[in-house]
Amino acid sequence: MLKMGSGFAGEGVDVVVSSATGDSIDARNLRRLAESGITVRETTWQPVSKEELGVAGRYMGIQFQLDAPTYVYPGDGASNFLDCDLWYVIADRDAAPLAPLRPYAIYVNDCLQRYLPDLLAGGGDDGFIATTRHSAIALCTTPFTRDDLVQYVGLPSRKIALLPPSFNPVSLPGDAAVRGSTRSRAYFLWLADVLPQGNHEIALRGIQRYVEKQDGKLDVVIAGPGTEDFDPGTEPGEVSAHVRRVRRQIARSPALTGRIRWVGGLDHDEYLSILGGAQLLFHPSIINAGTLSAAEAAGLGVPTLSIDYPPMRFYDETFGLGTTFFDAGDENAIATALKDAETRLTELRQRLPLAPDLAKFDLGNGARSLWNVVRQHV
Amino acid sequence: MSDPKFRVGIFLGYAPEQGIIDHGIGRLLGFLIAGVQSRSASPEAIAIACPGWYIPQVRELLADLHIPDDAVTLVTTDGIPYILRLRALLRRFGRRSTPRRPSANRWVDLVVGIGYKLAEAWLGTTSTAMFLVLGVLLCVAGLILLPVLLVVLLVSGFGALVGNAFVRMGTAFPPVGRLMAYATAPLRELRRDKFAIRVYESIRKRELVRLVRKINRGDIADVWYCPAIFWPEFAGIAGPKIVAVPDIVFIDFPLGYLAHSSEAVFVKAQKILNADTHLVCYSDYVRDAHLIGRLGVSPDRISVIRHGLVDMQRYAKGATPQDRRAWAIQAVNSYVRERCRNQPYLAGFDFSDARFALFTSQARSHKNLLQLVRTWERLLRRDFCGTKLILTCRLSDEPKVFDYVHARNLQQDILEVSGVPAEILAALNMLATISVNPTLFEGGFPFTFSEAYSVGTPSIMSSIPAVLEQVHDPELRDVMLFDPYDSESIGERVRWALANRARLLEIQRPLYDELARRDWGVVASEYVELFSNLAVRS
Known about the structure:
The structure holds 2 protein chains of 2 kinds.
Chain A: H1 2-8, E1 16-20, H2 27-35, E2 39-49, H3 50-60, E3 70-75, E4 87-90, E5 104-107, H4 126-133, E6 137-140, H5 143-153, E7 160-162, H6 176-181, E8 187-191, H7 200-212, E9 219-223, H8 241-251, H9 254-259, E10 260-264, H10 268-277, E11 280-283, H11 293-299, E12 304-307, H12 310-319, E13 324-326, H13 331-343, H14 345-350, H15 355-359, H16 363-374
Parallel strand pairs in A: 1-2, 4-5, 5-6, 6-7, 8-9, 8-11, 9-10, 11-12, 12-13
Antiparallel strand pairs in A: 2-3
Helix pairs in contact in A: 1-16, 7-13
Chain B: E1 8-11, H1 24-39, E2 46-50, H2 55-64, E3 73-76, H3 82-97, H4 100-124, H5 128-172, H6 174-184, H7 194-217, E4 223-226, E5 241-244, H8 249-252, H9 260-274, E6 278-281, H10 284-294, E7 302-304, H11 321-339, H12 344-347, E8 356-359, H13 369-381, E9 388-391, H14 399-407, E10 414-416, H15 422-431, E11 434-437, H16 447-453, E12 459-462, H17 465-468, H18 474-480, E13 481-482, H19 487-499, H20 501-507, H21 509-517, H22 520-537
Parallel strand pairs in B: 1-2, 1-4, 2-3, 4-5, 5-6, 6-7, 8-9, 8-11, 9-10, 11-12, 12-13
Helix pairs in contact in B: 1-22, 5-6, 11-15, 13-14, 13-19
């Protein structure tokens, strides 16, 4: 996006991507990066004490304002990214703050830890908060996250940039074999993860009720890395207590075992194929930053059924998705919403935005906005 | 006022170190002092009597209220009991002992530095003659210094042995550690310790009796006023006396105050209420339910004088609303940066654009704090209201609330900004989206309403007798009151108020205007009228 945005502005900048040791970038993404002229450096996050950082600052002629005892910096074995004019950081919940060796912009997807205190079970949030507070600018794509940056992180609005959400409008691949694999019976797609905030237990009770009490006709396809561990017909190895609970719940219900199909993690084409073949996209997670899959689904003619929470409301209004909302904590509401959507599919599809309307939110648009903000800090 | 040179004495028997600038009583005294001074021609219209240990807090209060020291006559006991002086000395010593370490390190660094330089000069030379001469000189110096070094080593070894012995004794003999804690811990940390309470009570009693004797020896005031019910010695003052009875909260919430120290307060309260004193309370409810109904006080001994309006606007700086808001942001940001350094989250928080609800109160069991924080968790995590809650009490004073906040990782959304001076309280009220008061009981209409409204912030609060006495309009009751026992009711009002701040402010205007007619000058007149009548009767 940075490369693209700066290119559009006629200011093409060099972009170097930091890839943490152990995190492999898949071949497709590596190819895309290389085609864009972006290099990748293997990075190991290195701790550095406040005193050591003070020494580095004196070498650099900078007096850092340092409050934490320890910081981290991206070690690449060479210049440690100090040859860059600006760091663009994707926020994470690190224990130690980022060493302010370079001015940096930070992209914050969400502040889930504010709503899900168990995420902080391993420690506090000091590193994330300090890193974000010391950034030159914090970027986000939903007003909900912007509000969290003011209310939770404690930033003044002038240090926050709200970028327009953008996505890559998609079309169905031509591989009929992939399409056919999941289209023997009509289904809705649930893009899940294995974390408790996925709201699996209540959502599954809602689906069970939809099948047993509401005579629901649609099957369920559950996709997402690791979600096949929920399948009681597999041997998952070591799994979390949450996954074990969900497996037992599914195993006890013939309605669920008979209706759910597990496809696990998908590559891009498989994802598009399964999404495009679905009657509905089902999104019951308790809270996250919202899913852009709803916009991608709309581009493929698939309506979305989502829990009602601010980021998804925002996406619904921004993209004009015509989303159907339900209460995530109420299994009856979930069952009723599924049945209602099943019977009104034609109407729901008619509420979807047209392709030209969605095209306004393509990545190029997002890249321009991003570069407009970032360039002010380079 | 019948006597234009009327003089009023205020009796304060608080413990050392107990600040009152952030308590309602401190603000009430401020308004009362200003009101009496404006109505009396006497240059000594107001006297404040307190033990010698409390002078710093009185001066702090006067400064916070912008009242010059010389506007008030201070009457105090001579000197401070030695036990308190020794304690103060030990505390100072305790605080100083830690920073001494770096200076010891500096000596070590100096010695090592000299040794290093000498070694460098000796071994770094290229001249054989210089090498030999310096070597001989260093050997001679070493021989001369050897006995000194031996003595130093022996002394430091013996010191370490003695130190270790003390450390072992400290762990095997807990009372030593406890005694050190009595000497060095802040008094508020000892307020639940029976031994500390007993010692303090005997000191307090002796000092207050001395203070009363001194008052009775002089012609200081025509009427004496005591703003609390904890000091039965006040009854010993000759002449007319008035005791303020904010409430006897134990009557309504007996299970919230089961500690021995609370019962002791109740016993003291009964003593002073049964003495030859006139009583002032702030609401009909306290008069009827507590004093007459429960304690059998004769109605003719009781006056109800309601609070006046608390106008926080006088602390705000700036000509326009925008200027005043900018002042408030700057004041709060600077305050937390400087005074909350040990809380990095709060110290680095920028309040420029933050939304928060404010509850200004002390932590007491009837303040309903646990209900409020539980409600706030739901507002944040279920309803995504995003708004913070700021409390001005010390959460550690209510361990159940403190534990809940930390167990649920709410400490970054439910902030404690305690012990704030009036100016910061005004700034916080100005920046707050709403003021919220979930108390289960108040002796009078809550100060929080006018504190907030006077700087442009609306309030929601509990539907309790002291509030219902003041809020009559059914529509106003519907929009600003909630059932403090019902979390859903609190949450529903908070959500509405956050979304309808401007409308709530508009609806509450008549209530504020009605309260504003009763400024502290009016209240002071009623007090002075009462003082005057009592003086005439005596």
